[in-house]
């Protein structure tokens, strides 16, 4: 990837993720296995197709499919390969904290969030393929997202789903 394209992509990510700064983590939930979802800002309820409540969506969100770690200033506190008993107390600490930093790192882009309580959350893919994370902007009538495809940032827009159904 050329340096110019890298700078352009990094600038686009900075603009895309800037609205996340200052938002509170209002809901944090686990998907299948160690998949992690953070919802930030005002929550919107969701109903699954079978009529049961789903996890709400925030104005902005972060999904890390499976490899992640939570750090403080001095060490790794837990990660997706740690004992699961370590996870919930850290998830509880992240919930209700504010996002004060969002950045990318690595040759293949990984994402890091910095929280107002001094914790950091980093994606860190440990399998073949692309890093498996996405940032979502659900403000307005279009859902915008950014993730990694073929080793570079990939931005998408899609129409919001009517009726608030969860997948």
The DSSP helix count reads 2
Written as H for each helix and E for each strand, in order along the chain, the element string is HEEEEEEEHEEEEEEE
Terminal Cα separation, in Å? 34 Å
Q: Report the biggest beta sheet as strand number plus sense, adding barrel if it closes.
A: 6 strands, antiparallel
Please give the share of residues in helix: 10-25%
Mean pLDDT: 92
Structural class based on helices, strands and sheet pairing: mainly beta
- Low-confidence runs of at least 5 consecutive residues: 162-167
Spatial shape: globular
Strand order, biggest sheet? Answer: 1-2-5-11-12-13
Let me know the number of strands.
14
Strand content: 35-45%
CA-based gyration radius: 16 Å
Q: What is the number of domains?
A: 1
Notes on the protein architecture:
With 167 residues, the chain is mainly beta. The protein has one domain (3-161). It is 14% helix and 44% strand. It has 2 helices and 14 strands; from the N terminus they run αβββββββαβββββββ. The strands form 3 sheets. The protein has a 6-stranded antiparallel β-sheet with strand order 1-2-5-11-12-13, covered by helices on one side. It has a 5-stranded antiparallel β-sheet with strand order 7-6-10-9-8, covered by helices on one side. Strands 4-3-14 form a 3-stranded mixed β-sheet, with no helix packed on it. It is globular, with a radius of gyration of 16 Å. The model is unreliable at 162-167 (pLDDT under 50).
């Amino acid at each position: 990837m050329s340096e110019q394209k890298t700078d352009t992509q990094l600038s686009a990510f900075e603009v895309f993720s800037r609205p996340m700064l200052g938002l509170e983590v209002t809901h944090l939930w686990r998907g299948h296995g160690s998949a992690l979802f953070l919802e930030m800002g005002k929550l919107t309820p969701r109903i699954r197709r079978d009529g049961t409540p789903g996890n709400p969506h925030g104005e902005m969100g972060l999904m890390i499919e499976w490899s992640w770690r939570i750090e403080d200033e001095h060490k790794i506190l837990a990660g997706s390969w740690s004992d699961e008993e370590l996870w919930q107390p850290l998830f509880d600490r992240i919930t209700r904290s504010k996002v004060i930093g969002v950045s990318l790192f690595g040759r293949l882009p990984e994402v890091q969030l910095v929280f107002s309580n001094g914790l950091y959350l980093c994606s860190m893919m440990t399998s073949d393929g692309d890093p498996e994370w996405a940032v979502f902007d659900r403000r307005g009538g279009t859902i915008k997202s950014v993730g990694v495809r073929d080793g570079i940032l990939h931005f998408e827009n899609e129409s919001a789903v009517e009726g608030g159904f969860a997948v």
